[in-house]
Predict the 3D structure of the following.
Amino acid sequence: IFIVRRANKETASTSPATQGKIVLTELAQQRNEGWLYKSSLLAIRLPSLFLGFLLFGAGYVARQQSTAVKQVIVQYAGEKGGQRFTEGTEDNEVTYMLCEDDECLVNVTIPDTMKEPILVYYSVDPFLQSYNEYLTSQVPDELMGKHASDEAREKFCKTEKVRERNGKPIYPCGIMATSMFNDTFSFNEINFHQGEDIVWDFDLRRYKNPENYNESGTVWLSDLYPDPDVIDPKKGAEDPNFVEWMRPAATPSLRKRYGWIKQTLQKDQQVSVRIKSRFNVKAFDGFKALVITELRSLGGRNNLLGCGLLVGGALVVLLNF
């Protein structure tokens, strides 16, 4: 309810002595008309109840979307049951097979029909890409294909082993570039696609190779990672795998897109995944997993969002009584 606050016409003394010292305008004396909001208990409760039920409804929809997502997880490194998967992951969705050798074949049974789009991503846990020393160990000019001075390289890529190898400069230098995830995955008899659609267009436009790319005298990414399934020698720093890796993960459970399955997977269908395991996680007692998941309007499986909205909506409603 809005009411009009009328001006008070009673003024202070208007003697000449007073007028010389005090400004007696309506604005200075705060006697202008104004609008004041006069609230009531009902006017507060109704919007608050509406917000509470809105949060509750959004939480219900988010929870239903999350539980409807079908996924399959292959944990191939680390102790069984130790890795943190997305909230709501069930035991029958996880296949555990320790990949002792550099290469292994894993057969997975699809528990329920999975419809497109089906995302394939890998997970490393724990791996802190948001750690400041790790995050800042890169030269932005180099990543954009520009020349970087030796001073800039020494400033950002502080350790010599991430700057040079056998007396040759590493391009691009830095901890992030030289610690890239280099496991690879291939699927038998599955329409699997890996391309630029795993990264943001903004990131893809940002990363460029220099004019002297692939000339001798420099250690390029394809020299660090000779498998063309990790870094395509023709693409170098513009390879989507590298671009995806260079976008820092916000949480200790690192998850990065790897590709898409362009077909529907039927219930009880057998899917064979060939894994080349190279990325070392034993040094920090880590875990590695491959995740095949459907995507809905709110993404993949994660019950935490829905539960948070449900609890928030319930609290707002209860606090009104």
Notes: The first helix runs from residue 16 to 19. The longest strand covers residues 118-125. The two ends are 22 Å apart (CA to CA).
